[in-house]
């Protein structure tokens, strides 16, 4: 093609583009006018279907989070070594890949991590109320009604019939203006304390990440003494972000070390362990995608076009590769096949280093257990246990983060490599101790399957599953009925939930023939359940 | 700006661009016509100044490689742990950052690694002739004259008065057509054997990397028996690329393992070590830059513009960041400051993991040495020594590669993390052995300075430096005079070399007052000098 032809073509294309833009702007303007004319939605409207009457496109895409419905038992199908590293903590019982937002309440009810509470019999959940923090718009309603400290006091079962609608419109939008807002008090406090930005000056693009960062972050439940209106002394476990010293894996570790925080003492090694939640936002901030100005929503809630209308899809994509043409390939100009081949190789690197770290740390736990059995002293063990703590913190920080590898591949490889390094440092120290006690050639037992690993961790999966089944068929059904009476239940959610609840098998009298949730692969999601507050 | 204004502006800009292009094309065409009219340059014209008479822009930029003249003593200024890892190998004596291509012959003469040969006294260099392979266009001339097997037979000093012009025009260009060509037989053989591409079908863009890959690769000197024309049996050490099984760090290791190759037995640990050369091309091929179609020349020899003429700069940039506006920022649309900040953080990650690997492997060597001293058996030591071999191979592969971190950051982090993992695996095994022999609490000696590390490695730096100084003032000067008589010396090179050679101090009778090259920081470059062929 000659050069003048290029010029002519460019001009023609530009004119066509201008015309198309004009049409599009007109349609978008019509849409905006409709939004402006919409009657205000009432404060604390927890029923997303109510919002959906006015915003049908956003609502119907939001409801598509239902499509991400695959149960993947991470402990069984992907990495049994996790069971060893989490021995003594609820995650060692049950940990599945997160499913769509739509399922978050059901998955939290089903997971073995929340236990089988029965208030009538005085059996509480092993988890605090704080585990509800991210589950849905009822939380903001309850904090407004009961106060933040009351909300964070007690065990998970306390709000079983109150938090009944999964994360929805009210969690991220102002009902009057539709503007993006954050509704959880912990985030604003942490943003301001960390100095990463001034919360009140956050841009729209900042908000397109911050609404996600209400939950997709590292946090802990800070024990906080308070006195209620009746003068009763209570301890709340307040959801708190450990960002005062920075957002890096090392800065957060320093925060925890300085306040002497530990999530749990490891059942096998007795190491004081920090459990990472899902520091997605923290890792994302280290990435080139963040530095180039992207927000979470750019890839996880891409713009879609229906006729002349362009809007943000609310089918929050756990994996933007599932809509690759709408997300990655917008900027990465490659064929889908070519792009996927690059990603595949990147992920192989992650799996390789992650596996090393998991195995190194799990082996260290088992070797430490052996050293204790042989009579090693606390003084002898302490340096190795502190290495295990450091290694496991890094390992968990990198792996617990959803999609950390996409968010920040180099940072994740660094952190996982550091994890292995500390795990191996622990093992070098433990090898000397084992040798001292006559077991220099000790070989840690096999933990290559979930069954073997859970046996080593002392977990009775069948017992846990049976109790859970009973809970789902009794207490959980009662919560459901109570919620209906309270009228806070989204009718759409109710409609969807009835078949779900009916699906649970009725336990046999002797428990022998019942089908336990874990056996049917009905596993839980990635809810935090940290509560231990033991000192280092 | 209104949309119709945008369209108008685009059109005007396109027209202006077209006019500019026309002017530029005209000037470039004039340039091309001049090239076409240039008399042919003779075959094996080793004098780059002769080529430069016809291609002044390329030649004058080529001569600017002289600007990269900083001596950086890596062992002393950056990482003394290298001395430990290379103990028993020439690199432990002396290793400096590579300088500009212009200096490659001088740097090879100066480095302690080539020793102080004195043919008149029957003292050979410790290095084979193969060390000349990449040093300049005289090599192709000698291979054509003497035959490849004769060229690769004997010690380095054999061609001291023959290889006298540093890498230049004839190494990469056909003298008749100016087309890019490779002139070293090892590359074509390896490319065809590896199947990465068909050499005879290489595109111009392939060639813009392959000419560099003649030297910027991993290789070894393959012992090859042959009989000369007089019936004398000889063994050549032929420069060979270990690519038959692939170009990854693991595939090349497999190649070496299968032929039982070892570069040297480690002086302290007795581990059978593989020394990586500089697998730049291999690592580059794993990178996103390569996958996006870039060639070495795109960043290291960027296009420059002088008036209306655009040409490839032949000032080969060791670090494209030194000309960031002409290289990185062409594609990475960022401010220089912003871009450098991103690079800085990326490099910090590399340094962190590289340091871990260096220290882990060096410590393993020293711990193994202790275990031997205490009476450990070969059978006991073998598993740990094989871990050291694997770890050090990965460590060296990643770090010896020039700029590996820019070429392939994720691949490099993976490899270095693997290196640490193997180093630590060795240390776990060694700890059990040490404990068995009563030294479970053994702490390896300090190697935090070059002096301490070289003392541990048994290097007499002053003696080596004095011998080198004598060599430079006697044998090396004689080589220079012989080369002048042979008439192959580029007059421009000669002019530059006289002050260089005169700068060497004359040694005192007792050697006590002379200034040794190492003391004046006149260190060497990154020439391979592998020669050990011991079996595993």
UniProtKB/TrEMBL annotation, chains A, B:
Record keyword Methyltransferase present: no
Alphabetized GO MF terms: heme binding; metal ion binding; nitrite reductase (cytochrome, ammonia-forming) activity
Localization annotation: Cell envelope
Keywords: Calcium, Heme, Iron, Metal-binding, Oxidoreductase, Signal
Keyword Transmembrane set for record: no
UniProt region (Disordered), positions on chain: 506-536
Listed Basic and acidic residues bias regions: 527-536
UniProt record, GO biological process: anaerobic electron transport chain
SUPFAM superfamilies in the cross-refs: Multiheme cytochromes
Uppermost EC category: oxidoreductase
GO CC, alphabetical: outer membrane-bounded periplasmic space
Organism domain of life: Bacteria
Pfam families: Cytochrom_C552
Enzyme Commission designation: 1.7.2.2
Record's catalysed reaction(s): 6 Fe(III)-[cytochrome c] + NH4(+) + 2 H2O = 6 Fe(II)-[cytochrome c] + nitrite + 8 H(+)
InterPro entries registered for this protein in UniProt: Cyt_c552, Multihaem_cyt_sf
Family statement: Belongs to the cytochrome c-552 family.
NCBIfam families: PRK11125.1
Full protein name: nitrite reductase (cytochrome; ammonia-forming)
Organism annotation: Desulfobulbus oralis
Lineage, opening ranks: Bacteria, Pseudomonadati, Thermodesulfobacteriota, Desulfobulbia, Desulfobulbales
């Amino acid at each position: 093609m000659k050069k003048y032809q290029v010029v002519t073509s460019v001009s023609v294309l530009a004119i066509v583009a201008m015309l198309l833009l004009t049409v599009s702007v007109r349609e978008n303007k019509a849409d905006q006018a409709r939004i402006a004319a919409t009657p205000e939605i009432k404060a604390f409207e927890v029923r997303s279907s109510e919002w959906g009457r006015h915003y049908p496109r956003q609502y119907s895409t939001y409801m598509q989070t239902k499509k991400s419905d695959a149960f993947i038992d991470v402990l069984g199908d992907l990495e049994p070594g996790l069971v060893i590293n989490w021995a003594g903590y609820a995650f060692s019982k049950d940990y599945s890949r997160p499913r769509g937002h739509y399922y978050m309440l059901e998955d939290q009810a089903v997971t073995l991590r929340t236990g089988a509470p029965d208030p009538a019999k005085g059996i509480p959940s092993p988890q605090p109320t704080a585990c509800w923090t991210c589950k849905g718009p009822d939380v903001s309603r309850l904090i407004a009604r009961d106060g933040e400290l009351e909300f964070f006091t007690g065990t998970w079962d306390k709000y079983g019939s109150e938090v009944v609608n999964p994360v929805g419109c009210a969690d991220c939008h102002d009902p009057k203006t539709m503007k993006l807002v954050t509704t959880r008090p912990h985030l604003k406090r942490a943003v301001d304390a960390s100095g990463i930005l001034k919360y009140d000056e956050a841009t729209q693009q900042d908000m397109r990440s911050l609404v996600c960062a209400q939950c997709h972050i590292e946090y802990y439940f800070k024990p906080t003494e308070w006195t209620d209106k009746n003068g009763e002394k209570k301890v709340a476990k307040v959801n708190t972000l450990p960002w005062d010293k920075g957002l890096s894996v090392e800065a957060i570790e320093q925060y925890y070390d300085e306040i002497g925080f530990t999530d749990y003492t490891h059942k096998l090694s007795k190491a004081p362990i920090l459990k990472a939640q899902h520091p997605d936002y923290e890792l994302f901030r280290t990435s080139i995608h963040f530095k180039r100005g992207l927000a979470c929503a750019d890839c996880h809630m891409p713009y879609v076009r229906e006729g002349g209308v362009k809007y943000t899809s609310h089918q929050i994509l756990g994996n933007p590769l599932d809509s690759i043409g709408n997300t990655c390939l917008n900027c990465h100009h490659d064929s889908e096949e070519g792009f996927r081949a690059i990603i595949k190789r990147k992920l192989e690197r992650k799996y390789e280093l992650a596996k090393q770290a998991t195995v190194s740390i799990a082996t260290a736990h088992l070797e430490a257990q052996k050293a204790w059995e042989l009579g090693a002293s606390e003084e002898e063990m302490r340096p190795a246990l502190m290495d295990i703590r450091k290694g496991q913190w890094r390992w968990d920080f990198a792996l617990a983060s959803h999609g950390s590898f996409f968010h920040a591949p180099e940072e994740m490889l660094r952190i996982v490599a550091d994890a292995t390094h500390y795990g191996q440092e622990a093992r070098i120290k433990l090898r000397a101790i084992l040798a001292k006690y006559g077991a220099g050639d000790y070989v840690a037992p096999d933990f290559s399957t979930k069954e073997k690993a859970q046996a080593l961790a002392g977990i009775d999966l069948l017992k846990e599953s049976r109790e859970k089944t009973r809970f789902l068929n009794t207490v959980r059904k009662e919560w459901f009925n109570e919620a209906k009476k309270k009228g806070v239940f989204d009718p759409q959610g109710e409609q969807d939930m009835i078949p779900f609840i009916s699906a649970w098998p009725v336990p046999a009298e002797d428990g022998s023939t019942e089908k336990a949730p874990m056996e049917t692969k009905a596993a839980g999601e990635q809810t935090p359940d940290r509560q231990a507050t033991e000192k280092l």
